[in-house]
Amino acid sequence: MNKLAAFALALLPALVATAQPAASKTPPALLASPEASSANSASREWFRNARFGMFIHWGVYSVPARGEWVMETEGWAIGDYEKYAAQFYPARFDAAAIVALAKSAGMKYITITSKHHDGFAMFGTKRSPWNIVDATPYGKDPLKELAAEAHRQGIKLFFYYSQLDWHHPDYYPIGRYGRAAGRTGGGDFARYLAFMNAQLTELLTHYGEIGGIWFDGMWDKPDADWHLDETYALIHRLQPGALVGSNHHATPYPGEDFQIFEKDLPGKNTAGFNQSGISALPLETCDTLNDSWGYNVRDNRFKNPKDIIRTLVRTSGQDANLLLNIGPTAMGEVPAEAATRLRTVGAWLGKHGEAIYGTRGGPISPRSWGVTTQKDGRIYVHVLEWSDSAIVLPDVPTIRAAFDFETGRPLALKRLGGNMVVQLPTGREDEADRIVVLRR
Predict the structure, then answer these.
(1) Are 420 and 11 in contact (CB under 8 A)?
(2) What letter does residue 188 receive in the DSSP assignment?
(3) What is the pLDDT of residue 433?
C-alpha cells in the first residue's frame, strides 16, 4: 500500500462525513421571462460567465460621509438634507480611471447608483430638478461620462435604481422608512410609478447600450402594487438585451433575469435579508469592501484581499457572481484602501481566472473546506480551509486524473469506499486558494 492510500485509510472515518453530498433542496420554480428574447438569453449567458462586478454607491450622501442611509438614520427632513447638494462638487471624478480600476480588478461589469433611496438622481434627468446636474454646482452628468468610458474599455454598465424614494411627494402611502422626511400626505402612487418609468426610459435611451437595471427598495412596501409587468416590459422593449434584477429578497418575479442575494451566498440568510431559495436564474451576491455601501469616513474596516478572493471563490462555487461595492468620496475619488485591494484581487485573477470565469458550480456541493467549479471537462477543487496533505471527496466516476493548478504536476488519486482520495499540493501560509484540477 502506498503512502497516500495508507494516509487516506487512516483519515477516512473522520472525513467521510465531510465527503457526503449535502442534502438536496428543490429550488422554487422560476419562470423565465415570458418576453425573453434571444438577445436577453445571450445576456443571461454572458452574465453567468462574468462572475465578478464592481458595485458603486455614490450620491449626495457622500458629502456628510456617513453612509447612504444618513437621511434616514439621522432623521433629516427633505429641506435640510437638500442643503448637502450645494456642497457636492466631485471635481476629482475620473470615469476612465474608475473603469480602468474595475478592469485591473478582473471585474467584467459595473453597477452604479443612478438614484438611491434619497431620491437624488446621479444623472441629468428632466423629470425632477433633484439631480446632480441641476441641484449641484458640479452641473455635469457623471453617468454619461462613465457610460462612454465603459463602452470604450469594454465593460458592461448596469444602473442601480431605487424604487423607494424618501424625497418624491408621490411616493405615497409612505412605507416603513423615510417617515422623518416631512412629506405631506395625499401623493399619488400611480403618478410616482409613471415618474419612475419616465426616469428609467431616460436611462435606457440616453446612455447607449447598458447591461441592465438593478432595482432596490421594493421591500419598503412589499404589498403595494408596483405594476412590475409594465416596468419590466418597458425595459425589455427599449433594450431587449438588458437584464432586470431586483433586490427585493423574495423569489424572483416573472420578467426578472437574475436573482440577487444581499451580503449572503445564494440560499443563505445570515444577514437577515434573504427570504427565498435559489431560483433557476443567473445568481448574484452583492457585498461591501468595508462595512458601508456609501462613503463613510469613519469606516476603515476594509476586508483583506485574501478574504475577498475566498468570497469570490465561494460565490463561483455556488454558481453565482460577486458584485463588490466601493463608495467614492464627495470629490469622486475611490478610497486608496479600496483600490489597492481590488488590484491585488485582479492580480490573483490574472493567474487563476481560468477556475472562475465562465465556470459553473461544480458537481461536489459546497463544504466547510471550500467549493468546486467546473468548465470544459474539468473540475476545479478550491481548497480554502484544509491542513492535511490529502482530501476525501465524493466519487465522480468520470474523473481519471488530478493535477496541481499552479504547476500542472500530477497528483495522486485513489478510490476508496465510494470516495476519491486526492493528494493536495503543498499549501503556503499566504495562499488564499489551493486549486486541484480534476480531469475526465
Answers:
(1) no
(2) -
(3) 96
